[in-house]
Each structure stands twice: as C-alpha cells, then as structure tokens.
Amino acid sequence: MKCAIFGDVHANLEALEAVLADAAEQGATHPVCIGDVVGYNADPHECVARIRGLGCPVVKGNHDDEASVDTEIVGLNPLAQEALLWTRGHLTGEDKDWLRELRLVRQVRDFTVVHATLDTPGSWGYVLNKFDAMASFSYQFTQVCFFGHTHVPRFYVKGLSVAMESGSAISIEPGRKYFINVGSVGQPRDGDPRAAYALYDMDAGRVTVRRVEYDREAAQRKILEAGLPKQLAERLATGK
Ligand code: ZN
Predict the structure, then answer these.
(1) Measured in whole angstroms, how far is the alpha carbon of residue 191 from the centre of its chain?
(2) Are 109 and 115 in contact (CB under 8 A)?
(3) Is the pTM of this model over 0.90?
(4) Across-strand partners of 112?
(5) What is the pLDDT of residues 79-121, one digit of tens each?
(6) Distance between CA atoms of 213 and 95, rounded to whole angstroms?
(7) CA 8 to centroid of ligand 1, rounded, Å
(8) Distance from residue 149's CA to the centre of ligand 1 (Å)
(9) Of 72, 186, 221, 229, which residue has the fewest beta carbons closer than 10 angstroms?
(10) Which residue ranges form the domains of the chain, and what is each CATH number?
C-alpha cells in the first residue's frame, strides 16, 4: 500500500492537482493531508472542496485555524495576515466549519500526522533542527510521524538530523523513529519551486519525497488578479 502524504497546500489549486496526479501515477491509493489547506494563495474554497472530496484524513494547520474563526490574528507575519483576512472572505460557512473541526493530531494506520509539533501541537512551534525534533519524539508513539509547517522537506531520525534532497528517499528500519517533514505543496521554501510531497510505500518500508512541476504562472496570475500581495506570487517562482 502506498500513501501520499501532503500539506501546506495554501490554496494553490494548480500545485494540489499536480501533486494528486503524480501520486496517482506513482500508485498511491491513500492520500493524507498534514494541514494548512488555505492561506497565502488564491483558491482557498476550491482547495477545501477538493481535499474534502478525497475523504482522506486531514489535520489542522495554523492557517486553517486562523481562517476558520473571526478573532484577531496573532503570531503571523504581515503578509500572512493580509492573506488570511482575504481568505476569510473567500471561504463559505461550511468550509470554515470543516476547517474548525479538524483535529490537531491523528494516527493513520501505523503512523501519526501532525502539522507543526507533537509536544505542543496547538502552539504551532517550528521544528528547525534535531533539538526541536527531540521534543516531538518524546510524544511520538508510532515509528513514523509526518509533519510540515516549515515548508522545507527534511528527515529526522531519532538521534540524527539529515537534510533531504529532491527525489531522495529513506528506508524505515526497525528500532528507529522517523519524524518526516513532507515539504509544501503550495509554497515551497527550500529554494526549489516545485511542489513537494512524500510517498510512503508501506510494504517496502520506504519514504520518498517527490517534487512536481505545476502551472505556476496560472497560480501567480490568480494571486495578482485577486489583489493579494504581489510578493506572494513572486515567491512561488523562487521557492523561498
Ligand atoms: Zn504552512
């Protein structure tokens, strides 16, 4: 069985469709979303509808959380804030209900999914190094956990920290724990503008991060036409 674990879609429908098509081509039958369906890009409702339609497990990201309520936005940079206010105005009540009810952590089969960290999942901290990862490992009760939030794909093996390259893979070996950042579908920040997601071949015990080209110009055009900040369109070209 192959699972496609993806997240940080951030309302980029073109990137989402490209990732889902690639996952199907790779033989993945079980999609799993690690959150941040909305925020930043121009198709929040469409991405919610597409992912709801998959009927797959989804956990809540910080942008999903902020977009689904009407409270004052805290802890986000000005660019993210502006995009979130726009996003709130472009989601239906039903979209917001669905986002609000997402859980923070889920176990799927024999692995766990969370958006940010396992130690304090609702505080939206960033796992940027092996010390941050160690805090999550203390609360990880499955051998493998997938997460996102930093938009940078990376493997953490308990006790080690290894940067993950395009197309690189890791074997799941007995006696070790894996905390795996699947990167971002809709706004990569590791300098590679292609959409990222992880393919988990459960029978082979192997996780591969795939990078997928998508119609970036279309996504950029929609951002500008929506009146969202132009930096949000520009950053899709650099993957930063
Ligand atoms: Zn995100």
Answers:
(1) 16
(2) no
(3) yes
(4) 107, 145
(5) 889 999 999 999 999 999 999 999 999 999 999 999 999 999 9
(6) 28
(7) 4
(8) 5
(9) 72
(10) 2-238 (3.60.21.10)
